[in-house]
Amino acid sequence: MLISLCLGTTSLLWCKKKKKRHRTSQIPFREPREHRSSAWCFAEMPLGRQMQFMLLFSRQGKLRLQKWYVPLSDKEKKKITRELVQTVLARKPKMCSFLEWRDLKIVYKRYASLYFCCAIEDQDNELITLEIIHRYVELLDKYFGSVCELDIIFNFEKAYFILDEFLLGGEVQETSKKNVLKAIEQADLLQEDAKEAETPRSVLEEIGLT
Asked: Which residue has the higher pLDDT, 201 or 153?
């Protein structure tokens, strides 16, 4: 009798422990919070204050494009351009693309035979400026198709228009390449329509006989 009571008590305790274990095993496992992707998104990058100016020149030192976002006299612009072109061209290919100049930082990048050079404030991020330069080159390449120096020489107004759609007052205003290219296509259509309207037509063309 005593043995049966002991066995019964032991079985009850074992069942209770089993139930507790069974209950604890049914607690839903909480998944860890999803982390944000470490990949850079251009639209989410903290943009700098303001770009001072951008210069585009060839290996021979010929200025192909210049955009100034600060008020300077023509004499000062020529002096800055001459100094920076000489300084950048004198640097070796394996040297750093960042350099300190006066109270500014110069960020430049060479693509084929062209140098893209930007001046930023001392507190701004150099890597973001490099990304801005690369995005501008991508826009040029997308519009012209394998852009080269001759494309910018003979279509410099298009290069300025693309830059104005991309940067406003030295700051990025549009990060989407599709939106920038769409605006350029619309401007091209307006320009073609204006040329057609200015072209004189003969009498037969006006009445639709030709």
From this structure: 153
**Is residue 10 classed as helix, strand or coil in its secondary structure?**
helix
For residues 167-183, average pLDDT:
90
The terminus-to-terminus CA distance of the chain in angstroms comes to 121
- The pTM of this model reads 0.70
Residues ≥6 apart with Cβ < 8 Å to 61: 85, 86, 89
- For CA atoms 119, 124, 130, 134, the dihedral sign is negative
pLDDT for 49: 56
Predicted confidence at residue 34, as pLDDT, reads 36
* Pairing label, strands 104-111, 98-101: antiparallel
Rounded CA gap, 83 and 63, in Å?
A: 12
Alpha carbon distances (Å) from 192 to 152, 164, 180, 187, 208:
20, 20, 19, 9, 21
Q: Which residues are within 8 A (CB) of 24 and not within 5 positions of it... i.e. 6 or more apart?
A: none
From CA 79, how far away is CA 195, in angstroms rounded?
39
Token pair 């944000």 in the structure block, residue: 36
Residues 6+ apart with CB under 8 A from 210: 202, 204
Residue 188 identity: D
